[in-house]
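Input sequence (83 aa), recorded before submission:
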Amino acid sequence: LEELCVPGSSAGNRREVGLLLLFGTYIMLDSLVLIGLAVVGYIGYRKLKEQRRSHGEYRPQFEEYQHAKNLPYLQPPSIEGLI
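Predicted structure, token format:
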């Protein structure tokens, strides 16, 4: 703090420099916390994604049934065409 002050400067200037250093420290700490939260969130997201991928259920019959319900109705062929 003393190195940044100009010799012979008033106490008001020293206080301003001290406040600027304190403000800069708070900004740095906030930035580090935000970056840390982003990294932890990303790691958690990847872990959840991997867990959902490897712990799913395989039910092909259910899937086929659900997709078949959404298909349009097909008309049966005419009897004349079958003979």
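Checked by second reader. Residues 27-53 form one domain.
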